[in-house]
Amino acid sequence: MKKCDFCRVYPNLPFERICSAYVYEGKAKEALKRFKRERYQGYAQEFAEYLKAVVEYDCTNVKFDVVISVPPRPERMKKEGYDQARCLAKELAGRMNVTYLESVMRQKEKRAKQSGLGRAARMKNVKGNYVVRKPEEIAGKVVLLVDDICTTRATFLECAKMLKEAEAAAVYCASAATTI
Length: 180
Description:
Blueprint: H1 5-9, E1 18-23, H2 26-37, H3 43-58, E2 66-69, H4 74-80, H5 84-96, E3 99-100, E4 105-107, H6 119-126, E5 130-132, E6 142-150, H7 154-165, E7 170-178
Parallel strand pairs: 1-7, 2-3, 2-6, 6-7
Antiparallel strand pairs: 4-5
Protein name: ComF family protein
Domain Phosphoribosyltransferase: 83-175
Organism: Ructibacterium gallinarum
């Protein structure tokens, strides 16, 4: 299995790999902005279809037990009431015939938005801010953790770390798009 530069530099990561369907540029970037900011929920179907193909190709012979989504910032959910990562994860789980688990993780406190922050600030911003609320649903399971966009990997790193501490057997990450 070929690894990216990040995975070669950091060999003891809490996740097995990250799969992304698109590079976050051009038409994919425009579509993801609509999906995220303008609530084009129908886009979840298209993103999930391509992401399913990528996950199945990149994670051949992996049997996922559950799919979960990266939890949104609580203040954003109160304000907007929309969680694009949840929409994508539910759609992907359905297409893969894998159980989607709702609200397994949460963010502990109000933090700055990740967008607009550099790599070091993003890592600091997420550190210690995620908690697994239902560890009994994760223990011993192979988890597919889903988010809409992967930029610096900070969110995936922190969430996967918490899932492993909750005794997940393995954590794989998937996003509709990546910047890297």
